[in-house]
Amino acid sequence: MTVLDTLGRPVRDLRISVTDRCNFRCVYCMPKEVFGHEYRFLPRRELLTFEEIERVARVFVDLGVHKLRITGGEPLLRRDLELLIAQLAALGDDLDVTLTTNAALLAQKAKVLADAGLSRITVSLDSLDDEVFRAMNDVDFPVARVLAGIDAAADAGLPVKVNVVVKRGLNEASILDIARRFRGTGHTVRFIEFMDVGATNGWRLDDVVPAAEIVSTIGAEFPLEPVEAAYRGEVAERYRYRDGAGEIGVIASVTQPFCGNCTRARISADGKLYTCLFAIRGHDLRALLRSDSADQLDETIRAVWTRRADRYSEIRTEGTSALRKVEMSYIGG
Description:
Strand content: 15-25%
Helix content: 25-40%
Mean pLDDT: 89
Largest sheet: 12 strands, mixed
Strand order of the largest sheet: 7-8-9-6-5-4-3-2-1-10-11-12
Number of helices: 12
C-alpha cells in the first residue's frame, strides 16, 4: 500500500547503508584531516544483520518502494554482501536492486554480485587525471583500478552509471575528460554539485560548480538536448548528446532544489531511518527490531513517513547550512 508524506510524496527509493567504513577518504565525504573530529567506526554488533535489513526492506517494498540501493561507507567492505543482494532481489521480480561503490574492490566482486541478482551499479569517479583522483580519494588509490572495476561490471552484464562530485578548484577541469571518456560506451555519467552534507567537509557555496555551468561546458564541445524525467522523484536532470552517443545527467541539489519530488528514505548501517539526506537525527529501527515490539515495524515506518515534511534544499540558508547534519559517510549519500 502506498503511503504519502505531508507534501503528498510517496516512498519509492530506499537507500541502505551496510557499513560506515570506507577504504577511501574522499575530501567531500570522509576527509582525513578534520579539526577536532575523529571517526568512531561502529562495532559489528551495532550493524544491522542481513536478516534485519531484509525485514526492513520488505516493509518498505510493501509500502511502495521500487528501488533498493546498497550504500556505505564502501559497501563492498561488508563481508558476503552478495548474500544480502540475493535476499533483497528475492523480495520482488520487478524490484531494482542497485549498489553504489568506489570500485576499489569491484573487479573481484562484479560477477558474483551480478549472479546474486544485482540490477545495476553506480561507480564514484571524480577525475580521470590520476594525480587529481589520488588527491581526492586521499589514500593514493590509482584511477586505473577504478576503470578496471567498471570494465569488470560491464563484462558481468551490469549496467553502469558513473557519479562525479564536482568541487571548484579541485576537479572541474575533469568534466570534459570524463564526458569524452564515457561517450558512446553505454555508461551514463551523473555530475553532482558539491553539497553541504554533514559538518566535516568544509562546504562553502563558493566551492559549488553549478549544474548549468557543467552542462554548458560539455555542450560547447558536444551539443546536448534535454530529456524528460523518466519518473517522479528522478534527481538528475538528463541531457542526451544530439549525435546519439548517449546521455549525461546533472544533480543540482544546491542551485536547483528538487525536494518537492523527493521519494527517498535512507537506513544507516546501525538501523536509523532518515527521511532526508540533510537530516539532523534519525529514527531508531534497530532498537525496535531487537525488542519485543518488532511486530510494530510496519506501523512505525508508516508513521514516520506520513509525518515527513523535509525540504532542506528548498529552504537552505547560511543558518541551515551550518547545522550539524548527519555525515555523508554514515548515511550513504
